[in-house]
Amino acid sequence: MIISQNKKTIFLILLAFAFSFLVRLIWVYQFSDMDGFKFHNEFMINTNDGYYWAEGARDILAGHHQDNDLSPIDTAAANLTAIIVKFLPFSFETVIFYMSAFFSSLVVIPIILIGRSIKSIEVGFIAALLSSIAWSYYNRTMVGYYDTDMLNIIFPTLLLWSLIWAIRTNEDKYLLFTALEIISYRWWYPQSYSLEFSFFSLILIYTIYLGVKEKSFNIQHLKFNIALLSFMMFAMMGLHGWIRFIIVVSLFIVYKYKKEIFTNYLYYILGLSILLFFITGGFDPIWGQLKGYVFKDTVSVSKDLLSLHFFTVMQTIREAGKIPFETFANRISGHTIIFIFSIIGYVWLSIKHRVMLLGLPMVGLGFLAYVGGLRFTIYAVPVLALAVAFLIVQLSNLIKNNYIKYALMSFLTILVLAPNIKHIINYKVPTVFTKNEVVVLDKLKKIASREDYVVSWWDYGYPIRYYSDVKTLSDGGKHSGSVNFPTSFALTHPQLQSAKLLRLDVEYTQKRFNIKEHNKELDKNDTKYIKWHSSNIGQMTLDYGYQDTNNFLTALQTNIKLPAKTRDIYLYLPNRMMNIFPTVDLFSNIDLMTGMKYNRPLFYISHRFKDDGKNIDLGNHIKILKTKGMVQLGNKKVRINHFAVTYYNRKGKLEKKVQTIDPNSPINIIYMKNYHQFLVLDNRLYNSTYIQLFVLEDYDKELFKPVILTPLAKVYKLKI
Ligand code: MN
To answer: What is the DSSP code (8-state) at residue 295?
Structure first.
């Protein structure tokens, strides 16, 4: 029986797609009984940023959202989600949970097609199996990983496929495919310009090489490449997607039906496209990124009138750090040995099929992970999977006997898949929030209005906005040092200062939105522009008549006049913030005037402790000497100031016993019985709003009112 090449391709695509999707159901199977990962009986997502797109999709479907609520209703991810929910018979929660598994599995299509273009569909099939479930690709596209990653690799791989075909066949249609892929890729992921630009540069180098080096060059081939460059440039201009779409399609019609215009004015058209690319600002993001790499700093100086020094979030994010070689190799290929074979395979593949050198931008971007952070590794996955698949097929082809040949091919394929599947089985990622935390936010949704602010650390911004349908001060995309400062200050300082700064920061944030809206055309050097693009805290300092922010912060303890209250403010205090509390503190434990960081506070959490009757060993050479009322830190023995014990009674209400042993001592102990944990902390953090309100529920009745109190999260309403 002879199966046509097309039928075979479709069959292998379906097979690889099913494989990719089914492997992603391992997580679902593993956690099917995990009630804490479900809300309203549906699995919740496991990526924080996903709640951002979910908020946008929710608002698109609802048909409304609030001014300046930062809901991403114009983004591709939110719109695609809304369309799917609207037209398919699945619930919103099902769609956002499974969307990544479905779309990311489509990567098998371009990969199998690329295999076919180098005349080996086996290479494409093996590569499709591997890349669809390769370590880092899986991590960023598993079920519940609802983020742009689900299509971020597919678009460049499609682009690679159409460029390969364009160069090989010089067929007209690939000009259009390439341009449309660039436009859709940019629509989906606006940061795509760096990869597009690298592809463009590679084609440009190839075209110059054709024109200069090759003596017996084919003029038609050269002209096609110049046309390809022009189409790419038009697709990459700094104009709205629809405008680029219309330009590219019209151009293609001209190319198709009036080719002589194109051939006569080829260089003018290319020149025009390059000119328009620069004029419309197509190059600006690339230039901006280059500048960003050159000027990196840990403390950022704001451009406001006081030149305040803020702590930057970059140094607290793990992703931005350097990674060891083994992690890097694992994430791309599943194992160091597979990775090394992939590199060998890629060299061989590029020699046999020079057109595969077009994969270099993706490999290069993937390798950037080695210095630039591990999230880049996924870009190298498809090309290196093709490379190792090529090696497997070449080795197997050395065998003449067909049965043994395919047995060897299958065996080697299983060998490269195995470490990746093993990783998937062990990669038991939890959902962002657990059910009981979401119950709190869902309840808050019924209490707070959409214009109210719920303040918390930026990590919780997106989920808060999604579940409670409110506004937030900070989130996964808005967390610069100046944005984080007031929130950090409010959480780590006493209630009076905290409450006042919360009111000020919310009102200033709103006022800033309004003023920005009315002064859209202001020049960047205009003092009014600088005023409203400077930090809230800097602006408050000046408005209250101070030149030194420290004096303003001290003045918060006095009777200063607060701005008029325009809305309610809620403080969301989750238990999970306990572990990052020292990090939260970093952002305000700094002298904004000089950038000098103050001493780190004492804050120690112990989950493993041993009580021998006389002493409680908290680990890390910290001991509570019960009979003496002292705490031993290494060799140092210090009297305890407050010793507090908290527990929940039968009604679920917090009870506490606070004993003051030595009011002059700097160290406090809190035993949180139901949490099985001890806290050892200095006076500043003991008196902080987070510890007082969350741990001790010791709130100032003039300033705060408890709204929801549960062991996992507590919400207070600001009374001023
Ligand atoms: Mn809203």
So the answer is: S
